[in-house]
Amino acid sequence: MNTTSSFTFGEKVLLGVASAVVAVSGGMFAYESINSRRTEDPQLVSVAPVLDLEPQINQVFPLEIPLEPSLAAQTPPDLFPEDSYITRCAVGQGGIEIQVKIPFSDYLLVRAQNHNIQRLPELGRFLTPHPLIGHLARELTWDASSPEDRAQRILDYVHNSVIYDNLLESPGHKDYVRHPLETIVEGNGDCEDQALLAAALSRSCGLDVVLVYFYPSQQDSFDAHLGYAVAGSFQGASFRIGGQNYFYAESTGTTFLNAPSRSRIGDISEIFASRMIDVFVPAPPSSP
């Protein structure tokens, strides 16, 4: 029998939309490089005891994350009663059902943000802390036995709750980066949406994470990819920055929720294992 844990957010939260201003050598990153047109199957993973990604690192950039909301104060549209919620269910460790009730006004405020970016360091503004993200992360990991256990539970949640929608990355499709709250509500997203959700949840429970951008392949200039990596003691694909080992985590791969991806932290697709990468390092996470 499942146990249900629920939490509700009644306050109205204005979320940050300030652009992260970071000097990037080598020119501007066009967002089209993320808005990729991939035909590969991201579930094809090769598990290696040790796979050193350091030779593939092109550059390491700081990722500025605004800690304070910067969206101009505004009254949410008076379309729904004060107690109007969007309810989503997540399954935690041991089959525990977590019921998430999101005020509709919070969702509308997030939707009202500017979702377009011109440079990859601007992704940091989508990691601005939000109470819901922190509560969900704690509900998912409250009895985890180690940081590595917490990290894997976050990845499992993303695989079990969010569908990878490659139609969002098709040519001519107008796409934008979702805030993690939107991805939770809408239940689908492309590579950057899922990586940002996993990274935001991971940071909220005290894990050290970085974003990883894979350059396009020589065969297809549109097959760039965004993932994330977690500091810890895992096995598989990793690199070392600032004396810390980071292990790659693939947040995409679930195309149907009745057949979620089972990838583990350290797994990486063969099609990405030899790609050149840029690494984006956020400020240190807050304590859980």
Structural commentary:
The protein has 6 helices and 14 strands. It has helices spanning 104-111, 131-141, 147-161, 180-186, 191-204, 270-273, and strands spanning 4-8, 45-46, 50-52, 57-63, 85-91, 97-103, 163-164, 188-189, 209-214, 225-231, 236-241, 244-249, 268-269, 277-282. Helix 2 (131-141) crosses helix 5.
Mean model confidence by pLDDT: 76
Helix content: 10-25%
How is the biggest beta sheet arranged?
7 strands, mixed
Topology order in helix (H) and strand (E) letters = EEEEEEHHHEHEHEEEEEHE
How do the strands line up in the largest sheet? 3-11-12-10-9-14-4
How many strands in all? 14
- The low-confidence runs, each spanning 5 or more residues with pLDDT under 50, are 1-40, 70-77
Compute the number of structural domains.
Answer: 1
Helix and strand topology:
Elements: E1 4-8, E2 45-46, E3 50-52, E4 57-63, E5 85-91, E6 97-103, H1 104-111, H2 131-141, H3 147-161, E7 163-164, H4 180-186, E8 188-189, H5 191-204, E9 209-214, E10 225-231, E11 236-241, E12 244-249, E13 268-269, H6 270-273, E14 277-282
Parallel strand pairs: 1-6, 3-11, 4-14, 7-8
Antiparallel strand pairs: 2-13, 5-6, 9-10, 9-14, 10-12, 11-12
Helix pairs in contact: 2-5, 3-5, 4-5
